[in-house]
Amino acid sequence: MKAFKILIMILAISVALYQQVSAEKNIYIMVIAIAVFMYGMMQLSAKTPSKNQDKEEQDAD
Q1: Which candidate, 47, 37, 46, places its Cα nearest to that of 16?
Q2: Where are the bilayer-spanning segments (predicted)?
Q3: pLDDT tens-place string over residues 17-60
Q4: Is the Cβ–Cβ distance between 43 and 5 less than 8 Å?
Q5: Which residues lie below 8 Å from residue 9, measured CB to CB, with a gap of 6+?
Q6: Cα distance between residue 25 and residue 22, in whole Å
Q7: FRET partner for 20 with CA separation of 20 to 30 A, picked from 26, 31, 44, 49?
């Protein structure tokens, strides 16, 4: 599943970059591609623990 999300993100950013350099820019496709990329980054980074997680647990005790 993680590899699938990374593949979709690479595809989305590729489409956005292609739209950026093309002569006929379609802003809607670029916005959708960037939104898909940002959503994918949010999903992948949600599992990364916070740097302050240990400190918060010690303060709660």
Answers
A1: 37
A2: 27-46
A3: 888 888 888 889 999 999 999 999 898 888 777 777 666 666 66
A4: yes
A5: 36, 37, 40, 41, 44
A6: 6
A7: 44
